[in-house]
Amino acid sequence: MNQDQIEIINPTATRSVRQTKLAPRRLESLRGRRVGLLDNNKPNADKFLGYVGELLNARYDGIELIAKRKMTRTEADCLAELSSGCEVVINAFAD
Length: 95
Description:
Elements: E1 34-39, H1 45-59, E2 64-69, H2 77-85, E3 88-92
Parallel strand pairs: 1-2, 1-3
């Protein structure tokens, strides 16, 4: 390639589809369970978790949602509280 040429690289890969199994579930249902919603403080993570919380409330009776926001990458203050007080924790990463 000489100096008058530009090399264009396409970073997209070909699409591949594969089927996998769901991870084993410890709980049969979330009915009556405490579920932690952990927001990593990225833009729109709170909106996504709010939507997930609405879906869970509509689907499971007696569910209790515990929302927490992690302010830094290394902050672990709320992690011990969530893991000890909730049967399930959903972590959102969004942008």
